[in-house]
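Replying to the earlier thread about multi-chain prediction with a worked example.

Input:
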Amino acid sequence: MASAALRSQVAAKWQEGFARLNRTEPGISGLISFSQAWNIAADYLHPRDITDPLSAKAHGTADMALVKAAFDMINRSRRLPVMLETFLDSICNQYYLIARDIHRYLAQYEQSADIGVMFRLIYRLVDWYRAWAPIEELGPTIRAAYTLTFQTQLFSILPPGFVRGFKALCVSTLVPVVQISPFIWDAFETLGLTDRYEGLIASVGYERIEAYVHETCTAKWDEPCLERLRHWMSTQIVPWMLPMYAKGALNTEEARGMLQNVGSRFDFHMNKTLCDLRTSEIFDIIIDFPDSMGALYDLKECLQRVDQRSSLVQALRKANRKRLLHPGADTKLILSQYVATIKCLRIIDPPGVLLFKVADPIRRYLRERPDTIRSIVANLVGDDDSGDSLVDENEPIQPLQQLETEDYNDPNWDPEPIDAGPDFRTNKPSDVISTLVSIYDSKDLFVKELQVLLAQRLLAITDDNSEKVEKERRNIEILKIRFGEAALQVCEVMLKDMTDSKRIDGHVQSQKASIVHPTIISRHFWPSLESSDIVMPGQFQALQTEYAKEFSTFKPDKKLRWLPHLGTVHLELQLEDRTIEMDVPPLEAAFIELFSAKNVWTMDELISGVGGVDRVAALKALLTWVDLGVLKEDVENTFRLLEVQEEAAPPPRSAPAAAEEPTVTAAQQQQADQMRLYWKFIEGMLTNLGALPLDRIQTMLRFAPGYDQTVEQLAGFMEAARREGLVVGRDGTWKLNR
Amino acid sequence: MEQLTTSLAPPRANLKPSVTSSTQQVAGSVAKRLTNELMTLMMSSSPGISAFPKSDGNLFEWVGTIEGPSETIYSGLTFRISISFPANYPYVAPAIKFDTPCFHPNVDINSGAICLDILQDKWSAVYSVQTILLSLQSLLGEPNNASPLNTDAAAVWDTPDAFRTQLMKHYQPIKDTA
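Result:
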């Protein structure tokens, strides 16, 4: 049972509500007019199906004055919030109409993939929005509430297919060919699509930039692209961005301010895209250097904007590993690519951090190649077949630079860049040769190899070709500037020997003419020449002795030691029916000389006749004559001189080996000698220090001059020594076997 | 000039390289000389003598090995010695002692100290590790009994059997450990 208080409470509330709705009208006429006004307003606001012409018409013909009066009355009765709620409810109820429409359009779009359908859909949605919008007079609050509800409902029913279509639509806005109504952006805005799909719209922009960069910049390295791209951005992308990101801007100044943030994002993306592109192309860019300067400048600028340095290093290292540092690549090629890398990375990153990181594997690899030094030296003295010099001819020749320790008193001192590794050495921009030489710990190796090469080239000079000697001299002079006077002293002596030989020969010839023209070299200063036990027989011997006699009268304190195998002999063979004239190596000459005594020789007789030479070399020399139709191998290992040419002389198998290069012990063979020296040290330390582990031996070998073997090489060497029974290895330690 | 800087060099106590720049320089030239001597020693194949630096960090401490010359009483025995070079080597003789106990008239049986004129007042800079080792080797066969360090040994030198007994009593073969 309700109490009296409750009753009076309810009665009071009712009175109050009644008074509000009825106002001060007599009876319930106020209530009736309110109810009419409510009906008019509700009817006006009711979301209609715009596809239905009838209802649209009814809506259009509504008496605006009446509607406004009705809203006014509701407002005065403070029932507007309730009205709004009812209205929003009815929107939700009626939204199926829009959903139906959307599905229809999308189905159509899926079928035709026509952007036009999407356009129509967007405009249709705008139509719906406009049709359902309450009148302006209700104020912004109600309008905002309506918009929010409309958009919420819209987003809730948009199917996934819409996003695809929407993106296509956005893409189409970027293609200038299609004429698009500028109002589409307003439509997006009205429907709240801009905010909701901001990321998607931006990604459309990004994709466009990526596509454009790849399309116009791929493999175009001769000129910088960045400037052109920036121009393209400002003429193509910025106008597109304007309606979305700078809506409502009154003047360009304001628009610029609004675009700043998003604009730099787009600019960054462009830089990043270009940077990624160039990073993926870097290896080929380096190959094309210096025709790819443009790309390098682009990359330099991009890297300042985008932090991709490490990925550049990684990409280049990977490319080098895959394309350069493998057995299939020629050492010369690796060297020239390395030099190009140095030059390129110096452009991109002057302090050299990138270079240091990239160069390290290349240098390590080059160090392991046996012919690296030879290639570098060959290039230095211009002995390169490719003619493609590693060194820029315009580059001033300068002494080799030593690694400098940092000068902290330098007022222009800069700290190392932050991405420099702990073992980064500040290498001041140094010239290419210094960098190449610094692959190895000391330049001695180069000087040694240079001597070998020079010896080879000097000995290859036949006749008195002083021009060539002069050329070598010029080379050496240039190299002196690099390696220093002292290092090339030996080379100097070698060159002097050449001119001295000529002078001595001139003198000896003036005393007693001889057809022997020796090159007299100072054994001490020349690299070890391959020795040979050939003793020239017959007239050669006589000529040599005669010459030596004459020489010792001229230089009584010196003695000639012949290296007959290094010369060449000009021969004229007079046979019964023919005369043969040719240049041959000494061994060939020696053999044919023997045949002047008798016509048939066995192989063994021949070999002992020239004082000891291995069978392979002997056979090769004899085959030269066989090929020339001078000798014939009747029975195996028995040769007969053909005084009369035989008809069916076999065609020459190969060109006569006349111009064979003199053999000089190559660096590799010298290494074997070095190893023998190291063995003495190993023996010494094992004798005195007892059993030693391998790494200890390796460090102790530091005492051996010029020791440069790796632990692995040493292990191999110790293993070889074990096989010969010199050492015993147990548990990783080695001791002498006794 | 060389001589001047060398004589200015601090005595042996300051052996550590990198103490001061001047020691370093001197140490550098001494090290060079020692490296050369090592090279010569390794290359020469004198039978029965050998020496090598004790560790790779210090060129001034060496270990040597001397085999007793054949047809002497020391034949077949191997002695280990230690050689310690002063910082002003070669102007001052290296300090040498036997690590393997050596019963010999001119060698102290306990400390291993050696009494040999070229290691003391007769030292000259032209001597080298190799000459020292050769001298020591010949000293084994021909002791100087006039100035013995080990009087017992000098006393029994003329009776080889007794000497050999004493010698073998003290001798310890070299163990093969570093």
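Residues 95-193 of chain A form one domain.

Feel free to reuse this layout for your own posts.
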